[in-house]
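sry for the spam today, last one i promise. struct tokens for design, 249 residues
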């Protein structure tokens, strides 16, 4: 596994840490591949009951690393592969038999925010700042959020968040239901650990069945939404306007 994603085991908990602090844990090829590998390993380990996803340094994850934009848009096939790799993380999180907790602090932007929304529980620290920048750049969101957010917070709020792309604080995340709980900055990981240990005491088959039933019942159109997102995101990545705006940012 790449050192840009560090996975450690603590009893029934797999701690999966995004570890590119010098780039605010921005998403690049090695990070996405490393996260996929870590999630796959946790899924295969019968002793692990809960996964906690968190970030090193000053951010959970600042979204797509725009320094890699040229590589991501070299040709349509490369763009398609990149977007599908990002979308695969959503599938791994949401179809996992394990409960996945997002412990979010600092910046949580774009694709990273979408991954957090895919998680079963979302703990935000008080210093969290989050937003969806994609539409502002002429791009599109991933992670199934066009389906997930609409059903969680309603179409009006979803349009506000995705189209306006404004930056928000942890209080807004709690008000909209994007955050399950907001906690002091210095207790984020302790709170995540306590939640994980509580969940780990529950019968694992029943927990997995509840997760699957809820996700399948509420989000029956998730795959269709993600297919549309993938096509729209690929188109967005390949437009000159979006590439120019991303480079300017």
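last one done:
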């Amino acid at each position: 596994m790449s050192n840009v994603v560090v996975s450690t085991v603590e009893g029934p908990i797999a701690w999966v840490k995004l570890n590119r602090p010098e780039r605010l844990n921005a998403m690049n090829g090695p990070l996405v591949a490393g996260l996929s590998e870590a999630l796959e390993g946790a899924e295969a380990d019968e002793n692990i009951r809960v996964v906690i996803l968190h970030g090193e340094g000053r951010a959970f994850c600042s979204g797509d690393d725009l320094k890699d934009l040229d590589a991501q848009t070299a040709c349509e096939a490369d763009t398609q592969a990149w977007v599908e790799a990002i979308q695969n993380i959503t599938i791994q999180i949401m179809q996992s038999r394990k409960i996945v907790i997002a412990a979010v602090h600092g910046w949580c932007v774009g694709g990273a925010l979408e991954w957090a929304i895919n998680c079963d529980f979302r703990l935000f620290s008080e210093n969290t700042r989050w937003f969806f920048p994609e539409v502002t750049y002429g791009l599109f969101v991933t992670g199934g959020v066009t389906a997930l957010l609409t059903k969680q917070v309603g179409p009006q709020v979803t349009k506000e968040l995705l189209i306006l792309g404004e930056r928000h604080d942890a209080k807004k995340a709690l008000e909209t239901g994007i955050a399950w709980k907001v906690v002091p900055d210095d207790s984020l990981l302790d709170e995540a650990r306590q939640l994980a240990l509580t969940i780990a005491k529950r019968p694992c088959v029943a927990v997995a069945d509840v997760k699957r039933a809820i996700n399948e019942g509420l989000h029956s159109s998730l795959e269709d939404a993600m297919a549309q997102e993938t096509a729209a995101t690929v188109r967005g990545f390949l437009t000159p306007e979006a590439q120019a705006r991303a480079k300017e940012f």
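The radius of gyration is 17 Å. ok im logging off now
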